[in-house]
Amino acid sequence: MTTRKIRKMRKIRRKLNRRYTAKVLVALYTLSILFSAFILIKPSVTDAAEVVSEKKDLKLYIISPYSIRLEWEDDISYETAYIIQRAIDSADFKSIASVRANTTTYVDYNISPGHIYTYRIFYKNIHGNLYQHTVEVSTSSDLISKPNTLELTPVTSGQVEIKWTYPGYKQYDTVIERKADKETEWKVIYRAPAGTFNYIDAGLTPGLKYYYRIKAATATNIYSDYYPSKYGESIFTSLKAPQNLFGYAVSSTRIYLSWEYKSDDENKDEKGKSNKRIVDYFELERKTENEDYVLIAVIPYTNNWYQDSGLETGKLYTYRVRAKKGTVYSDYSEEITINCGYINPPVALSARALSANSIELKWENRGLDVGAQIEIWRKSEDYQEWDLFALLDRSYNKFIDKNVEEGKKYSYKLRSVIAYNNTYSNYSNEVSAYALDYNAPTDIDYVVIDKDRIQLYWNYEDDFIIAENADATNGYDSTNFKSGFIIEMKEGLFGQWKELARVSSSVNNYFVRGLDENKTYYFKVRAVNDNAGIGTYSREIKVTTRLPDTPEITSIEALSPSKIELKWKDTLQDDDPDSGYIIERKLNALNHYTVIAVLPSNSNTYIDTDLSPSRRYDYRIKAFNKAGNSQYSKNVFAITKAFNYFEDVPPSHPASEALYELVGRGAVKGQKAVNKEGKVVEMFYPDEAITRGEFIYMLMKAFKLEGKAIGSFADVTYGHWFYKEVMTAKNLGIITGDELNYFYPENPLTYDEMERIINKALKTVGRNVLYQSGNIDGKSKNKDEFVTKGEAAIVVYNIID
User: Fold this and answer.
1) For position 668, what pLDDT does the model report?
2) Which of 179, 319, 353, 509 has the fewest beta carbons under 10 Å from its own?
3) What are the tens digits of pLDDT across the range 214-237?
């Protein structure tokens, strides 16, 4: 074989090998596809790790009467698709759509008004198994309406007022969502309860653009569509106006101006400075008597001052300033009018605390201009705004501030002013002082020893020791008194205080003699230390040594089967915390009284509660004070009323006992009516047939059955007064609707229906008993007869316990 033939054979063999390899690869690929499909289609054993035990919320948005949007959470990573299932009225669930993995929303456009739609979401895993992902939620397309107006108004710096309405005066919960400009995520900021139509959103950044949108909501996860749209409506918050605009003439042709500007959340500590740019710049405007305002300067946000020059001596200039950020302007500051004329300020201001409630200011007033007055400006650590506190003549060089709170820091500054021509000086130096916490004598009280004698006592603690005054023999020298306690007394409320005695700092009591039991006295104790500048008083106490007068009971009345009201003449007639009245009671069948209440002075009425119906109760009262107790009042008595909560259910009615219990459980409701005397009374109508809805309400309340009120019947929707109880009973399996999902709550209840409902309720609460309706109150009943309200009350009362 030639070389040429050998090469040709090798070339043919290589082509065949390549074709064969390609066919093999195609075959293998096809087999892999078929195998994968087989695995996906073939049912497999449930992977327990993939089962989500807690079902997620499903939210329904009613976009229109013909479309509903579903939203759910995508918090799993192993799904291949989500399956949407829907049930119409009482029909079974059917799958209506399949969406891709990671999807969180679906819109059902196949909706007709007048039907109840129930939805749930399943997810599919890689094995083709389905697992329920969300709870079931029911609604109708006319259950809720979206708002029809939204009004946004910037009210103050960092606040926006939101107002809205609904068509046809409807009322729902309203969910308010907000996002700031350039943010992507909407945040729920408030859920307004039904009947509320406005909200103020506070704590916002001034001068920033915000978007708002709202939606109606029910108690469950059912919402309207967003209003005005999912994109919301925008508004700019207003800027805070500059504060404390101040100015004075620094020469005959120049005026210096300054102001403050802080954001609402800026640290108000004087040492703390904010570097945050909260505005772009300030605009300063000026006017004179015959001119309008003109812009005289645009000032960078870093500067809060400006010096206006080239002015006329003695001329009045009025200024105002505002801030700007972006396209938003703040309101103007308060106006200030300044005379371009220089006057001297007070100098060398100092401050010191005299006591816990007074601070003394001193300054140098020499050089103040003729006709000038002195303004005292003050601020406290609680309120960091300067206030004009006092106005004095220029001859003053001292002032005592007595309007201070103990332990607080106060700051002061002064300036001189000629008010009639608006001429102001610069401020003096700023000074601060604390109202020092000097302790006063505490726990002052007394003990009555006799009609003419008492013993006063008190406590005193402080951080320093009150030095004793001692002579060479260590005896106490009251003639050279510099420290200790001074006891002061006055006779009657309008008497004059006089010094009664001085005692050493080691003494904490004093005996007072020569008092008159027919008079009232007041005492106080003063701690004194001349070296420390202390002279603080204790509180005043009122003292009497006379026993109180005997109370006189003026009336006693039974208000109800469980309440009796006592009234008496107040014989104490003061607010003494150590005086009052003792109320005692006894049952007619007993021989001893029991204390039931101790009331403060100035009391003249007491209502005794938790009594039994148709029982006699006896009462007596005595007064007390520090001197002792008065004699008892005369004995009085009253008989509680027989129970008759409803006007048309007398005590003799067979249902009265049952209603007494059910009223206490909140299980029955009456109806307001006007009786023959023209009074509004509560009626129960016990002989009328009870409706299905009324009975479910009574039964659920009596058994205190709780649960989720999810879904609705076609004739029981959100808003019915018994909606919660009926839907809870439905979800607990106690009641069901017909094939059209109707419950007929207004239909009279039959004995057969009552029997079936009660037995399901008993099973729900775990009671293994069977109720059979046969006879009530000794009367045989046909199962097709209607149950009266009174009969229903008797039945429920007999089975609840």
Assistant:
1) 85
2) 509
3) 999 987 789 999 999 999 999 988
Phi and psi for 193 in degrees, rounded to 5?
A: -70, 160
Cite the beta strand spans of 89-133 per DSSP E: 94-100, 105-108, 117-124, 130-132
Residue 438 is predicted with a pLDDT of 60
Q: pLDDT tens digit string along 699-741?
A: 988 888 888 888 889 998 888 888 999 999 999 999 999 999 9
β-bridge mates for residue 716, sequence order = 713
Query: How far is residue 596's CA from residue 583's CA, in Å, rounded to a whole number?
Result: 6
Burial class from Cβ neighbours inside 10 Å (0-12, 13-18, 19+) for residue 768 reads: exposed
Q: At what angle do helices 789-800 and 751-764 cross, to 10 degrees?
A: 20
Q: Token pair for residue 725?
A: 């109880």
In angstroms, rounded to a whole number, what is the distance separating the alpha carbons of residues 32 and 89? 45
CA 333 to each of CA 282, 290, 329, 339: distance values in angstroms, whole numbers, following the listed order? 11, 21, 12, 19
Close Cβ partners of 674 (under 8 Å, ≥ 6 residues apart): 680, 681
pTM of the model: 0.39
Instruction: Output the pLDDT for position 228.
Output: 94
Comparing C-alpha atoms, which of 601, 647, 435, 442 is closest to residue 524? 442
Q: C-alpha distances in angstroms, 542 versus 456, 490, 514?
A: 11, 10, 16
115: tokens are 């039907």
Kindly state the tokens that stand for 741: 């999902």
- Please report the domains of the chain, with CATH numbers, ordered by start residue: 58-140 (2.60.40.10), 149-237 (2.60.40.10), 243-262+278-340 (2.60.40.10), 346-435 (2.60.40.10), 458-463+478-544 (2.60.40.10), 552-640 (2.60.40.10), 655-800 (no CATH)
At 682, is the secondary structure helix, strand, or coil? Answer: strand
Helix (H) or strand (E) holding 210: strand 209-217
Q: Peptide bond preceding 228: is omega within 30 degrees of 0, i.e. cis? A: yes
* Cβ proximity of 584 and 593 under 8 Å: yes
- pLDDT value at residue 14: 59
Q: For position 535, what pLDDT does the model report?
A: 56
- The torsion angles phi and psi of 36, rounded to 5 degrees, stand at -65, -45
Q: Which residues pair with 214 in a beta bridge?
A: 176, 227
Residue among 339, 419, 412 nearest 373 (CA): 419
Q: Are 282 and 295 contacting, i.e. CB atoms less than 8 angstroms apart? A: no
Cα separation, 470 vs 420, whole angstroms: 60
Residue 535 and residue 528 in contact, taking contact as beta carbons nearer than 8 Å: yes
pLDDT score, position 271: 41
pLDDT, residue 749, reads 93
Contact between 444 and 406 under an 8 Å Cβ cutoff? The reply is no
Angle at 761 between CA 755 and CA 764, to 5 degrees: 145
User: Rounded to an integer, what distance in angstroms lies between the CA atom of residue 312 and that of residue 336?
Assistant: 17
Report residues of the chain scoring pLDDT below 50.
1, 6, 16, 20-26, 28-50, 52, 267-275, 463-481, 531-533
Residue with tokens 């208000």: 559
Residue with tokens 């302790």: 439
Cα–Cα distance for residue pair 22/34, rounded to 1 Å: 19
How confident is the model at residue 554, as a pLDDT? Answer: 94
Axis-axis angle for helices 656-664, 789-800 (nearest 10): 70
Q: What is the pLDDT of residue 553?
A: 94
Q: How far is 571 from 624, CA to CA, in rounded Å? A: 10
Give the type of residue at 220.
T
Q: Which helix (H) or strand (E) holds 146?
A: none
DSSP conformation class of 462 = -
| Cα separation, 374 vs 372, whole angstroms | 7
φ, ψ dihedrals at 311, nearest 5°:
-95, 170
The C-alpha atoms of residue 460 and residue 536 are separated, in whole angstroms, by 11
SS3 content of the chain, % helix, strand, coil (to 5): 15, 40, 45
